[in-house]
# Entry
Amino acid sequence: MLLLAGCATSTTPPDETISPVPASGGSAALNWSAPDYVPKPVAPAVKTNAPPVVHTNRPAAVVPKPAPAPVVTWTSLNRWAAEHKFNGPRQLSSTPTTTYAISSDQGVLTLGIGSREATWNGMEVLLGFAPEIIDDQVFMHGLDLQKNLEPLLLVSSLTFDTNRVVVLDPGHGGKEAGAKSVLGDRYEKEFTLDWARRIQSLLETNGWQVFLTRSADVEMTLSNRVAFAEAHHADVFISLHFNSVEHDKSQNGLEIYCLTPTGMPSTLIRDYPDIWADHYPNNNFDAENLQLAIRLYASLLHGTGEVDRGVRRARFMGVLRGQKRPAILIEGGYLSNPAEAKKIESPEFRQKLAEAVAAALK
# Structure
C-alpha cells in the first residue's frame, strides 16, 4: 500500500498561511486560487515496536483539546464491553486467522487477531493497532476503543440540522491536473468538477446549501480550500478525487479517508512523515469524521457496486487537517485501471457516484 502513487494530493504544514477571510463569510473579494503556501521541511517520525502495556482498567479519558495526551493502555475487549452493558466478542473462526465479532444495536464489527484490517457491517475499516490475545482474551489498544469502537458501536448515527451547509471540494484544477486517465488525455480535475456539480444539483433539492471550492478549471491551494470552508461556515466538508497507481493497471476500487487520530499510525503515508503525536484542528472531530466516512462509504459501495478498499486514515492530506468540521476525502476509482477509467469517463457512472453521496446526506 505504501507504494501506491494515488492522486496528486500535496501536503501542507500546520503553520501554513491562509488568505484573509472576510468577517461576513463572503468570498467575492477573495482570490481563492492565489498561491500562498511554501512547503517546509518536517522532522521524520520516530517509531517504536515496544510491546503493549497491559492494564485491566478502561483507558483514562483523553486530555481536552488542543493537544490531547496519547492513550497507551491496552484493554480487555470483554471488560470494555461489560462496562458498556453489551455482550463481549464471540469467536468466529480460528483459521487461517483467528477472528472475533462484537456487536451492538448500531452494527457488527469483525476483527482479526494480529491484523489491522476489520469490517464494520461488511465494509473494510482499518484499525490503528492490531488486536492481541493476552491471557486468552482479546485486548485492544485504547485509541482503537476510543476512536473506532465507541463511534461505531456506542454512538447514534451522525445527524444534521436544517439549513445545512456543505462545501464540496473538486480535487485539483488548473495546472494541477491530477491523475491522467490511462485511456487518453483526460485528467482527474475534469472528472472531480463534474462529480461535484452533479452532487450540488441533487443536494440543493434536499435541504442543503452547497458551495464548491472551485466551479471552473482553476488552480487552488489546499490552504485556500480550508479557508473557503471556514468562510462559508460549512457543516461538512467533502473532498472529491480519483485515484491512480504507477506501473500497475490492475488496482481498482473505492477508498475514503479521514484524518488520523493523534497517537495512531496512519493507514497511508505515501513517503510523507507520519508523526503520531501531531494534533490538528480536525482531530477535534475524529468521531464525526469516522461516522461521516462510514455513512458515505456504505452508500457509495451500494450505489456503484465497486470494490471495497476500505475506510482509511491519513494525516498528510492538508485539505483535511485544518478543517473545523467533519471532513472526509473520497477516492472514486482508479484512472490507471483501463476498465475503471472507462467507467469514470462515463457521465452515467459519475451520476451514480453523485447520487450515492446525496443519498447518504438525506
Remarks:
- The chain is about 25% helix and 20% strand.
- Confidence is low (pLDDT under 50) at residues 1-5, 8-64.
